[in-house]
Sequence to fold (389 residues):
Amino acid sequence: MKTSLFAYGFRSQFLLAGLAGLLLVPLWAASFVIGAPLGSAWAPTLWHGHEMLFGFILSAIAGFMLTAVPSWTGQKGFAGRPLIALAVLWLAARLLIASSALWPPLLVAGVDLAFLPALGILLARPLLRENNRNTPLLGVLGLLWLTDLVFHVGLMRNNPPLALHALTVGIDIVLILITVIGGRIVPAFTASALRPRGLEGTVQSSKALTVLAVASMVLVAVSDLLGPDSRMAGLVAAIAALCQFARFLRWGTRHTLRQPIVWVLHLAYAWLPVGLALKAVALLAGAAFAAFWLHALTVGALSTMILAVMTRASLGHTGRPLIVDPLITLAYLLLTAAALVRVFGLSALRLSYLVVISWSALFWTTAFALFVIIYAPIFWKPRVDGKSG
Fold:
């Protein structure tokens, strides 16, 4: 049976992201809770952090950009062999890392580091040809590649703090992407959804707040690069939280509650100011309840935004109505539960750390299992409207 899996950029990369979400977290949880071997020579914490960032998150970013760039530039969408090559490269890196005890570190690093340049080359041609305003995103991909390079250098030099530092900065770079791209799509999609109800005027955008939000997130990345876990990093996080919250308040969230495909975008973005505020409290006051601020930003903001965008874009680009299956609404709620338990389970719910890891992993895994079950056939089959892509 002929497949459409490589007929457009989002299909294969979103499926890989969903499978990564389904497999990586339970493997990490099993390793942490019962000591199940991972097979990797890397320390479990480093393996977990790297694979969530450069496996799960990066695959979703690739799927989004491979789909968005043709729309931004008016060029033909990516399909066929380039997408197959990217998928093979991504899979090869995951397999080599999972069995890294068997391979020379340079081989593992080389394959892993090849994905972003390959993606960048594909995206650069249409962006540069059209002199598109989104061309600076290629620089963001370059910075992500540098953080991955530093991560591997840290591993090879037996310097885990350097590797962890690289992951922190890499997460900050993705948060900047969420601020830029999310800051465009959340109000735009909200206004579109509210227009039939005559409520599009409730969504407001401010150029000044946009500039402040993006600039403050750049400062977050710089402060984490130069002084991670410092009081200065805490102060910058507090400023960024205020900027993000002020921006978010203008997007008419309360009017979206009837439409899960819209409110999930707001929920995802709301985790940004929450996570930044928790980071500020943790670094400036040392409050125990804020200790897991990083997971508010990763599980809460990044992962929820990824699930929100993947579920929406996959419907729109396959000719389907923008109405999610009730099981996907459940997936949104389960992912939110995973974030809440991971961030507040120890302090607010008084759960043991093993229970926190177990329950948050269960909620997360079920959410992505539902995504794969519902969306794998969508990725595999042609568009329902008969168009190409």
User: Anything to note?
Assistant: The chain has one domain: 9-380. The radius of gyration is 20 Å. The mean pLDDT is 95. The first helix runs from residue 9 to 34.
